[in-house]
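Predict structure. Chain length: 210.
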Amino acid sequence: MRNSLFAATEWITRFAYVNILWMAFTIIGLGIFGLFPATVAMFTLIRQWIMGNTDEPVFTRFWQTYKKEFLKSNLIGLVFYVISLLFYINFQFIQFYQGGFYNVVKVPLYIFMLAISLTLIYIIPTFVHYELRFLDIWKNAFLVMLIHPLHNISMVVGAGAVLYVMYSFPGALFFFGASLVGYIIMGTCYHAFRKVAAKKETIVEKQAGT
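Prediction complete.
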């Protein structure tokens, strides 16, 4: 019982600490330039925890990743910002123009935007998990999203449920908002990545056996 309580306290402290680091380094980067490097650093740490590597110093790993991936993560962030702007423009057009051509394309456009949004959720986990070129990050994220619909649903539902619960407890979002949601996303993506790797190994073994 005492060991379980100690372990729970340790994990609560760990999530709160990385959440505060995420906020602090986002602010240090002036918000728009700090958000994605801090998020990449947080996901890198969470990935290590999921893999069982919990002994690494949190601040050291966070700071090293923040510095190393500052430019590349901001390039990814730039694409996020551009896509968000395009989404906003599309919503404005859809609301402003009613009938005719826009009624025809409305549903396909919503489906396309949903697919892009789900792909964006996979981008940072893909970035921290694989060593890929910039364009390959987006291609792999889209393909993993496409072949794992149940993972998509579990991520969205899980993250939404956590945020809903935290809204009921003052201060919870400050200490756990980003880190817990990040854990759900990274954990789900990591499971999807392992399934992809297992399928590749099976294909290789079959090819080697023929």
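Summary: The first helix runs from residue 2 to 28.
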